[in-house]
Amino acid sequence: MLLPVHVELTMKKIILIIGLFCALFSNAALANVIAENEQEREMLRIANKLRCAVCQNQPVSESRSGLANDMKVIIREQLAAGKSEKEIIDYFVDRYGDYVLLKPRKTGTGFPLWVLPPLLLVIAAVFAWMVMRRRKELEPPTQSKLSDEDRERIRRAREEEKNDEDDKQ
Amino acid sequence: MNKLWWLFVPVMVTLFTLLAFGLTSDPKKIPSPLINKPFPVINGYDLAGNNVSLGGKAKPRVINFWASWCASCRAEHRVLLRSAKRFAGKVELIGINYKEKQQIDGRNWLRRLGNPYVWSFDDQSGRMGLELGVVAVPETFFVNSEGIIVHKIAGPLSDETIANGIEMIIK
Questions:
Q1: What is the per-residue pLDDT across B52-86, written as a single tens digit (0 to 9) for each?
Q2: Among the four residues A110, A160, B77, B124, which has the most C-beta atoms within 10 Å?
Q3: Residue B139, exposed/middle/buried by CB under 10 A (0-12, 13-18, 19+)?
Q4: B 53-92 → A contacts, CB under 8 A
Q5: Does residue B168 contact residue B87 with C-beta atoms inside 8 Å?
Q6: Residue B130: which of A70, A123, A130 has the nearest Cβ?
Q7: At B171, is the pLDDT very low, low, confident or very high (cuts 50, 70, 90)?
């Protein structure tokens, strides 16, 4: 393997590099807002599924905007009143629409969003497979024989090269 | 080989149509799920401290969320003053004073700039805003005499947009 500075890549080093690479992305997973209190944790778990409508693409749980704070108050109240997660989420969907859900619904208008990407991947894979199969069936181009004229040109070129090298020495 | 490429044409056309639609529409303009639903029945107080209620059958109503801290509300205030005069007797213009720091701020604002509203619902907590899916003030709901939300405008009103909305509820 070619590296700017010659480093011998042992198995240990490779594992270390992969480990550091993974660590680079794991901070995103650990960045969730956390809470000690059981009910507060439940509130944040639900708030994490709701979009803060005034901040683009941020869950309510991570936002400190006025609207997100009001939404958290409502979630706390409804949890205290014994409402289920579904009831609480439906409360917001009834008022703000499906837009408030960070993950689109798996039915209705949200259905294509879940189905299309894997479907496109399958179509692309089938297409690639068909193209490759066809390519395999193609006859490789036949190599044409060298003519006497070609051989003569090669011989001359080699001789010239040899003469040039002799001149340099 | 050439036949195969035709497989990709519908896929590409679909993708481009979706992209064209998605990239040209404004993500801030979200259709409200409340259209054609009844306006929620809510009791509370107006800025003078009187008991008031919203929702149910009444005169056609234009219900406008406003706040003294909101710049666009100031911009549309003149439109509201004009419309209140123009449509007096046909519709009731009702304010919802949304999330004031102090109650007095809303009252002072109306005193200074003029009061287009029959009365203003005091929504210091923002609870009413959540109940109606309000994202940012100003937002205006057009409610017919049956108490059904017929139309909603997010953002500042113009003389035309408010007149159009009123047309829809006094028919």
A1: 999 888 899 999 999 999 999 999 999 999 999 99
A2: B77
A3: buried
A4: none
A5: no
A6: A70
A7: confident
The pLDDT, as a whole number, for residue A21 is 83
Cβ-based contacts of B135 with chain A (< 8 Å): 53-54, 67, 96
User: Which parts of B3-99 are beta strand (E)?
Assistant: 42-45, 51-54, 61-66, 92-98
The token pair at A32 is 């969730």
Is B22 touching A (CB cutoff 8 A)?
Answer: no
Q: Quickly tell me which residue has 């693409």 as its tokens.
A: A57
Give the global pTM. Answer: 0.73
Angle at B11 between CA B6 and CA B13, to 5 degrees: 95
Query: Does residue B32 sit at the A interface (CB-CB below 8 Å)?
Result: yes
Q: Domains along chain B?
A: 33-169 (3.40.30.10)
Roughly what angle, to the nearest 10 degrees, separates helices A38-47 and A66-80?
Answer: 130
Separation CA B166–CA A169 (nearest Å): 99
Between CA A92 and CA A99, with CA A94 as vertex, the angle to 5 degrees is 65
Q: Give the ranges where chain A is alpha helix by DSSP (H).
A: 11-30, 38-47, 66-80, 85-96, 111-137, 148-168
More confident site: B70 or B14: B70
The whole-number pLDDT of residue B30 equals 67
Per-residue pLDDT at B143:
96
Select from B99, B125, B135 the Cβ nearest to the Cβ of A53: B135
Output the six-digit token pair for A75: 């979630």
- Residue B152, strand partner residues: B141
Contact B135 A54 (CB under 8 A): yes
Higher pLDDT, A90 or B3: A90
pLDDT at residue B21 greater than cutoff 90? no
